[in-house]
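ok trying this again, last paste got cut off
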Amino acid sequence: MRRAAIERLLPAAYQRAAGPGSVLGALLDVMEALHAPDEAVLADVDALFAPYRTPDGFVAYLTRWVAMDHVVVAPRADAPLPLPLGRLRDLVAHGALLARWRGTPYGMRTALELATGVTGFVLEEPADRPFHVVVRVPPAAADRLTLVTRIVEAEKPAAVTVEVTTDPAAAPAPDPTTDAPEPPAAGDPEPPGTGDPEPSDAGADGPEGAATGVASVRAVGRAHVPSPASPDQPSEEPS
């Protein structure tokens, strides 16, 4: 609050005594200086609660507001976060969406993809084991099994048991020094399949221009998430 505003709140006799160089005038100047830091915070207080504007040290606190604090659980208060701040901000920004779809395959996949930055999580319910879900983790996220398991345990329905497994890594690329075919001799016909490929109508993102990766629909915030089932399709119920 400015000095002039504080002075207007005083009785008339005090206002007359708060002239320049007076003791009361000096006290009002001190009050204005004391209020300045708090007023600067209040003037931009909405930034504290905006996922992409809040200070780095406040992001983990905001996860409690959207029931995603299980992601940052650590044995020590000074332990580093288990995922980059950018992904943590994405989780906070999509907290309402994740809460709406919690307990469904879509909600679990979305939470896993936002937290790890990796797509390709597969959820299966074996026919011989009802109320049991197998979560297959893609190789790119195999080094984050602790984080994945914590998210799966929090996002699954309470009556469902889960099993987290990793998909086998892709086969290693052939060694060009040992597996490369010998060049054809001069005059030999060119073997089939070695010429220039025919042009394809498919786009760079896949057949019929379908985009790959995390998704097609922008929700709240900056990260993209997969779109849920369309309205004419039955929604995913908890297993």
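PB: full thing came through this time. The radius of gyration is 30 Å.
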